[in-house]
């Protein structure tokens, strides 16, 4: 494979891998009934005038599968943390116990599980759209190489390899969805 073709191929592969990583990150935020510190990943608080992620201001632990305990290093920000969790609209009701905040993670109803599966499917479809857009961009780059004088056979081979990558990463997205769906629906 020519160096120019290899560069296009590597760029496409790297971008598709990032789409899959983004999907995995989105799935971490979709809870499956078990308490996890990842559930609070998007929460930021006003920490002395700076918007700071919650996990950089506190210890976040899960003593069991139904609760999360937040122990801030500075007790004066407990009220701020409580408000930030409520503002994040995660469906949690934090309980301020003076030096810690305890969150009881509610059990999922069948209806809520179905909503979460729909959300997971939506995230998967977004990842697949991203992968297809990357394929289109890679094919456009390949056609541009042909205009620059790269042999037609090499360009055709590159486009075939890009299609194989697209199929591979689309399959990975479907496998991640299947795994997450099973996780969500398991009671």
Offer a concise description of the structure.
Helix content is 58%, strand content 15%. The chain has 187 residues and is α+β, with helices and mostly antiparallel strands. The chain starts with a helix and ends with a helix.
Low-confidence stretches: none
Reported CATH architecture of the largest domain:
Orthogonal Bundle
Helix content, binned percent: 55-70%
Tell me the structural class.
Answer: alpha+beta
Query: Could you give the count of β-strands?
Result: 6
- The pLDDT mean sits at 88
Biggest beta sheet attributes: 4 strands, antiparallel
Strands ordered across the widest β-sheet: 3-4-6-5
* Beta-strand residue percentage: 5-15%
Distance between the termini: 50 Å
Q: Tally the helices.
A: 4
Could you name the CATH homologous superfamily of the largest domain? Ribosome-recycling factor
The SSE order reads HEEEEHEEHH
Shape: elongated
Radius of gyration: 22 Å
- CATH topology heading of the largest domain: Topoisomerase I, Chain A, domain 4
Number of domains: 2
CATH hierarchy class name of the largest domain: Mainly Alpha
Secondary structure: elements and pairs:
Blueprint: H1 3-29, E1 44-47, E2 50-53, E3 58-64, E4 67-72, H2 78-87, E5 94-96, E6 101-104, H3 110-147, H4 152-185
Antiparallel strand pairs: 1-2, 3-4, 4-6, 5-6
Which terms would index this structure?
two-stranded antiparallel ribbon, alpha+beta, Topoisomerase I, Chain A, domain 4, 2 domains, 6 strands, 187 residues, Gyrase A, domain 2, single chain, four-stranded antiparallel sheet
